[in-house]
């Protein structure tokens, strides 16, 4: 086998949930093979570097094995070497303010106080 479609490979190794998501990511320019923007049908070979920006995170993987059909997670993990940077730590998210039922929309003053509490505005 000389190569596999990049969208099919991304789906087979479980970097995206569906093949149509993988193809859409390719068309949107979120997939690069060896630094070049990839179309969905572009072939990928063993040793290629594939960069996928999906779900707010960039994944950098090196192809070790060519897969055409989707496989289980343990087998998928063996098909590539993950060189991605670690995900950023989750920040503590402020609890959303709960308003009493029937209190109406927040006033401008209420909104400013909430924004100041969240740190969104000075």
What is the total tally of β strands?
7
Helix content: 25-40%
| Structural category | alpha+beta
Going across the biggest sheet, name each strand in turn: 3-2-5-6-7
N→C terminal distance: 59 Å
Look at the structure and give the mean pLDDT.
87
Order of helices and strands: EHHEEEEEHEH
- Shape, principal axes of CA atoms: elongated
How large, in whole angstroms, is the Cα Rg? 21 Å
Task: Tell me about this structure.
There is one protein chain. With 122 residues, this protein is an alpha+beta fold. Helix content is 26%, strand content 20%. It is built from four helices and seven strands, in the order E-H-H-E-E-E-E-E-H-E-H. The strands form two sheets. The chain has a five-stranded antiparallel sheet. The protein has a two-stranded antiparallel sheet with strand order 1-4. Strand 2 and strand 3 form a beta hairpin. It starts with a strand and ends with a helix. The mean pLDDT is 87.
Keyphrases for this structure?
26% helix, alpha+beta, single chain, 122 residues, 7 strands, 4 helices
Strand and helix layout:
Elements: E1 4-5, H1 6-12, H2 19-27, E2 31-33, E3 36-37, E4 43-44, E5 49-54, E6 57-63, H3 73-77, E7 80-82, H4 108-118
Antiparallel strand pairs: 1-4, 2-3, 2-5, 5-6, 6-7
């Amino acid at each position: 086998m000389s190569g596999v479609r990049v969208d099919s490979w991304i789906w087979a190794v479980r970097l995206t949930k569906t093949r149509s998501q993988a193809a859409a990511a390719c068309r949107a320019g979120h997939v690069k093979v060896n630094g070049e923007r990839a179309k969905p049908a572009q072939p990928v070979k063993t040793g290629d570097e594939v960069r996928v920006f999906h779900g707010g995170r960039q994944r950098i993987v090196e192809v070790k094995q060519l897969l055409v059909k989707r496989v289980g997670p343990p087998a998928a993990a063996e098909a590539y070497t993950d060189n991605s940077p670690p995900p950023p730590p989750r920040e503590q998210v402020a609890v959303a303010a709960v308003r009493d039922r029937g209190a109406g929309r927040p006033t401008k003053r209420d909104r400013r106080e909430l924004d100041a509490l969240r740190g969104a505005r000075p």
